[in-house]
Design brief:
about 375 residues; alpha/beta; Rossmann fold; Alpha-Beta Plaits; 2 domains; six-stranded mixed β-sheet; four-stranded antiparallel β-sheet
C-alpha cells in the first residue's frame, strides 16, 4: 500500500531526515514514534505530498508521489496535528466543501457526507458551527474530512493531542474501527495507544528509522533475557532449591524476602527466649514462631539460562511434580516506554539550529 524508499529531506543548517526506508501492507495500523524534532512530521508531510523529498521515492498503491502526485494523493486521507477546519462553517457545509476539493462526484457527495457523519458520531451536530464544538468533536470533524473520499491510506499526526481521557478513548476506538477498512499510519506521543491500536511499530530518531517491528517481538529484537515472575506456595528454602536444580534456570531472585528475626531465629536465641519466659511468667512476651514454620507464598524473579528460551512450561511441570503450587506466573518484558527511551535518549542536544519540522506549523 505504501512504499518509502531511501527518502531524505535535507535542510541547510538543520537536521532533516536521512534514508527513511519502510513499507506498509493493506490493513496494517502502524505506530510512528519519535522524540520531538526527530523527523516524524517531515516524513508524514512527504508521504502526503505536502513536502518534496530531496532524495528517494514514495509510492502509494503503486502511484509515484513524484510522477503522479494527483493520483497518489487521492489514495490518502491526512489529519495534521491541528485539524484543517474553517471555524465559521457548519459541520455539514465544511464536509461538502471538502468533498468538492476531493473531487467526490456531485451525485455521491450527499451520501459520502452522511456516511462520514455517521461513522464519526457527529449526528445531531451537522448544523453546528465548528467554532462552537469541543476539541474532541473538532478532532472527529478532522477525521471525517480525512475519510470522506474513502482513501486507502490514512495518515494521522497526533490525533489525540490535547484531548481529555474520555475523548482519547473515543478517538482511539474510532481509529481502531477505521483500521478495519483502511491502512493507517499513526503518529503519537501516547505510547499506550501503540499497544492498544497498532500491529507494528516504527521508531525514528535523529532523522533515521531505528526500529521497525511488531509489538510482540520488541523484546526479542532488543536482545531481552527471558524472565518470569512467580508466586509459589510452600516453604521458601525448598522452593529455592527446586528452582535452582533446573538446568534451564539461570538465576533466581526473591522479590519479597521474609522479614528478619521471625522465622529465622537460631537455637541460642530460642533458648534465651524460653528462659526469659520461665523467669517472669507475668511478662507478656509473644510466642516465637518455630524455626521451620512454612511461609505462605514466595515471590520470585526467575531468569532463563539460555537468554531466549521460554522456561514457563518447565517451571510449571517441575513445581507441580514437587507439589509446590504456582499461584501466579507472568512473563516480564521490556515495556514500549523502556524500548523507546533506550533507542532515543542518546540524541544530542541541538541548540545551534532549529529543524524545519519544528519551524513549520500544520495547516
Amino acid at each position: 500500500m505504501l512504499e518509502v524508499k531511501q527518502v531524505s529531506k535535507l535542510y541547510e543548517n538543520s537536521r532533516g531526515v536521512h534514508n527513511i526506508d519502510f513499507s506498509m501492507q493493506r490493513g496494517e495500523i502502524v505506530g510512528f514514534l519519535g522524540p520531538n524534532g526527530a523527523g516524524k512530521t517531515t516524513t508524514m508531510r512527504m508521504i502526503t505530498g505536502y513536502l518534496n523529498p530531496t532524495h528517494g521515492q514514495i509510492w502509494v498503491d503503486g502511484h509515484s508521489m513524484a510522477d503522479n502526485p494527483k493520483k497518489a494523493r487521492r489514495k490518502i486521507g491526512y489529519l495534521p496535528e491541528t485539524p484543517p477546519l474553517y471555524p465559521e462553517m457548519t459541520v455539514q457545509s465544511y464536509l461538502r466543501f471538502i468533498a468538492n476539493l476531493r473531487d467526490v462526484p456531485a451525485r455521491e457527495q450527499k451520501l459520502a457526507v452522511a456516511e462520514a457523519i455517521s461513522k464519526l458520531g457527529l449526528q445531531g451536530r451537522e448544523k453546528q458551527i465548528i467554532r462552537s464544538l469541543s476539541k474532541g468533536y473538532k478532532q472527529r470533524v478532522g477525521l471525517a474530512q480525512a475519510i470522506l473520499h474513502k482513501p486507502d491510506l490514512l495518515v494521522l499526526d497526533e490525533p489525540t493531542s490535547g484531548l481529555d481521557p474520555k475523548q482519547i478513548i473515543e478517538i482511539r476506538q474510532l481509529i481502531h474501527e477505521l483500521g478495519e477498512n483502511h491502512t493507517v499510519l499513526l503518529s503519537t506521543h501516547i505510547l499506550p495507544e501503540i499497544n492498544a491500536i497498532c500491529n507494528r511499530v516504527l521508531i525514528i530518531n535523529q532523522g533515521r528509522v531505528v526500529l521497525d517491528e511488531r509489538p510482540e517481538h520488541l523484546g526479542r529484537t532488543m536482545g531481552e533475557t527471558f524472565e518470569v515472575s512467580l508466586e509459589v506456595k510452600g516453604p521458601r528454602e525448598r522452593i529455592l532449591t527446586e528452582l535452582r536444580s533446573l538446568s534451564s534456570v539461570g538465576e533466581v531472585k526473591e522479590v519479597d524476602a521474609p522479614a528478619a528475626g521471625i522465622a529465622t531465629l537460631d537455637a541460642p536465641a530460642l533458648q534465651a527466649a524460653s528462659e526469659l519466659n520461665s523467669a517472669d511468667e507475668a511478662a507478656e512476651i509473644p510466642a516465637v514462631a518455630p524455626v521451620d514454620a512454612p511461609i505462605e507464598s514466595v515471590k520470585l524473579l526467575v531468569t532463563s539460562a539460555d537468554r531466549a528460551e521460554d522456561i514457563r512450561e518447565a517451571l510449571f511441570f517441575h513445581l507441580a511434580n514437587a507439589k509446590l503450587p504456582i499461584l501466579e506466573m507472568k512473563r516480564e518484558s521490556l515495556s514500549l516506554e523502556d524500548i523507546f527511551l533506550k533507542l532515543t535518549t542518546d540524541e544530542p542536544a541541538d541548540t545551534s539550529s532549529t529543524s524545519q519540522e519544528e519551524v513549520d506549523t500544520d495547516a
